[in-house]
Amino acid sequence: MKELRLIPLCRLLTLAAWLALCWAVAEGASAQTWPDRPLKFVVAAPAGSSIDVLARIIGDRLKDRLGQAIVVDNRPAAGGTAATDFVAKSPPDGYTMVMSFNGPLAFGPHLYSKLPYDPQKDLAPVIITSSQPNVLAVTAALPANSVKELVAYAKANPGKLNFASVGNGSSSHLTMELLKATAGMDIVHVPFNGSPPAVTATVQGETQMLFAVMQPLQAQIQAGRLRALAVTTATRFALLPDLPTVAEAGFPGFEALAWNGVLVPAATPRPIVQRLNTEINAILKDPAVKSSLNAQGFELVGGTPEDFANLIRSESEKWEVVTFTADIGQGEELEPARAKAKAAGVTQIYVDDLREEFVRDFVYPMFRANAIYEGEYLLGTSIARPLIAKRQIEIARETGADTVSHGATGKGNDQVRFELGYYALEPGIRVIAPWREWDLSSRENLLAYAERHAIPIEMKHRGSGAPYSMDANLLHISYEGRALEDPAQEPEEDMWRWTVAPEKAPDAAEYLELDYVRGDIVAVNGKALPPAQVLTELNRLGGKHGVGRLDLVENRYVGMKSRGCYETPGGTIMLKAHRAIESLCLDREVAHLKDELMPRYASLIYNGYWWSPERKMLQTMIDASQAPVNGHARLKLYKGNVMVVGRASKTDSLFDPAIATFDDDRGAYDQKDAAGFVKLNALRLRIETILARKYK
Questions:
Q1: Distance, CA of 262 to CA of 100 (rounded, Å)
Q2: What pLDDT score does 575 carry?
Q3: DSSP state, 453?
Q4: Whether the bond into 35 is cis, omega within 30 of 0
Q5: How confident is the model at residue 30 (pLDDT cuts 50, 70, 90)?
């Protein structure tokens, strides 16, 4: 039987203090005798690469300064992550260090979901060694003498051109991905282990282009085997003063640098880290070293370990991708979106339930206006976009993101709606629109692109062409594409998802009562419900009775006509009921003015101007008009129809039975007064007719 012993707290504290003192003494003694054997200098790139050249020059000088041999160990596998991981897991005794770069240190955590090390926890930065611009170079045989010509040629040959990189997740790789996204090129990535094989492949035409630092490119450019098109610095590069920047070549703000530095395992004694930093700083300041490396395109940096740590952290944040999925009642399982983001290496994943906000702050205000676009469309897609844009900008602010992206096509209205929202809420935001920028001219092209790049995507309709373009939220579901592109063709019955066919709806009508307060529904059949649940219940009831189907040819804001089909069961009921209660409670001229302004209000929402001052002004007026809209409306649902069968308001009804009755009103209304009213309103008509007869 094991004995459980209790040690007094004071003895524990004494023991802990003693161990800490022993560790500090041992660490100091270790640092004082270090180094007493050769050091291993692991290089996260192959022999002959620019980083290898830099590491060997530093290692050669460091050998003399430390009095021990420096053994260079090239480990280029996995884009430099293998070498970086090896050192992160090495003993923290100062005898193993790594020359690594921004790929494994800043980009890797966002590209690989299971990176075997944490760059900011498992490694101790020693010093930034250099920063270099990337040069865009193409094989000599490619018919492109400028960035503009390259982009045009790539767009004319989508998916047919390859670009080399020095490894997955490297600056070489991501700089081209940035240009690819910005310019809208569909080009294929071919990664290599380091710059020597990547440059060789481009010289030989196996790949047609690459971004790389100057050192491995210099001889090939001078020999005419590669053609330099641009450099990624903000200003022109001293070694190639006649070469334009990518920003000058048509992509303002484009800048990307490759940087590298020396690191050791995280628990390496601080005196050893400081000694290495001091010695390498001195090497980088050596005039002979500076002259040699500057001529090869290196911009030597140096600095403190803290400088390097700050660079790794800031660059990692700069390249991080944040995903956002809005739950606005589309009914899809949202966890697969989270899983896909995790599989892509994303760490900041937002899956936000916006259903209540959507109905309360967007759908309800719109229905106070009785908004309909072109006489029929209840604006189900249009009204969702401003909320998505709002939350996207909020997340960008929370995470420090300077760029947002959306998946809307270059033909539709949604690109306008999203981007007007972005710019209204954050004027300086940068927008990436892949459909528009990558020339994805059809859904078939999109599916092919996804397959070519191993992007998982639903392809259920592969045998019969691209799927319908569908958009769903709590207010509606829409369908475009496929058979609907022929306006004369009836929609397929199996397309509809929310509503039964009216002819198959129940043979018995169902009655429904909605309670209103200030123009908004607060209860369904006597049961108080929050806005999202109100719409959910109305969708259920309307769908059951075949209510809310619409087949429409509409005029898009971008200038074309488009055919779409919509299911809006709950919204159809809401519109009918709201007009019914308004008919009872609103003054005639207020109601007519609302009706006159409604088409303008609906167009503002359809075209994406939810955040505009004119929409806000109209909303203020509309909301004020709803103060007396209190009471209830009673409706009957039957085989696709919504019929108002009653409305009442105990407090705000302007309907006076004593005046409106056809029976004896007991003097409430003097019918003789109508004679003068009629004559006054007929005066202009009588004058016109008299005048016409006079000169006939």
A1: 6
A2: 98
A3: T
A4: yes
A5: low
* Cα 524 to Cα 538: distance, rounded to the nearest angstrom: 8
pLDDT of residue 458: 63
CATH 3.40.190.80 given to domain 37-128+259-318: no
Note the pLDDT of residue 459.
53
Distance from C-alpha of 37 to C-alpha of 70, rounded to nearest angstrom: 9
**Secondary structure (DSSP) of 303-340:** --HHHHHHHHHHHHHHH--EEEEEESS-----HHHHHH
**C-alpha angle 438/444/450, rounded to 5°?**
60
- Topology of domain 353-648, CATH: Argininosuccinate synthetase, chain A, domain 2 (3.90.1260)
> Is the CB of residue 99 less than 8 Å from the CB of residue 44?
yes
Q: What is the pLDDT of residue 128?
A: 97
Task: Tell me the fold of 135-255.
Answer: D-Maltodextrin-Binding Protein; domain 2 (3.40.190)
Is the predicted pLDDT of residue 355 greater than 70, yes or no?
yes
DSSP assigned state of 464: G
pLDDT band at residue 253 using 50, 70 and 90 as cut-offs: confident
Q: Residue 599 and residue 520: Cα distance in Å, rounded?
A: 20
Helix (H, G, I), strand (E, B) or coil at 487: coil
Evaluate whether 388 touches 500 at the Cβ level (below 8 Å): no
pTM for this model (two decimals): 0.72
pLDDT per residue as tens digits for the range 431-484: 988 887 766 667 777 777 777 767 777 655 455 554 677 889 999 999 998 889
The count of other CB atoms within 10 Å of the CB of residue 169 is 26
Q: Which sequence spans correspond to the domains of the chain?
A: 37-128+259-318, 135-255, 321-352, 353-648, 657-694
Amino acid identity of residue 543, one-letter, is: G
Contact 231, 240 (CB under 8 A): yes
User: Which pair of tokens denotes residue 658?
Assistant: 């004593």
Mean pLDDT over all residues of the chain?
A: 90
Cα separation, 416 vs 424, in Å, equals 12
Please tell me if the domain spanning 135-255 has the same topology as the one spanning 353-648: no
The count of other CB atoms within 10 Å of the CB of residue 602 is 22
Q: What is the pLDDT of residues 365-411, one digit of tens each?
A: 999 999 999 999 999 999 999 999 999 999 999 998 889 999 898 88
Report helix, strand or coil for 259: strand
- Provide long-range contacts, Cβ within 8 A and 24+ apart, for 151-160: 151/183, 151/184, 151/185, 151/250, 154/183, 154/185, 154/186, 154/187, 155/184, 155/185, 155/186, 155/439, 158/186, 158/439, 158/445, 159/186, 159/187, 159/188, 159/448, 159/449, 159/452
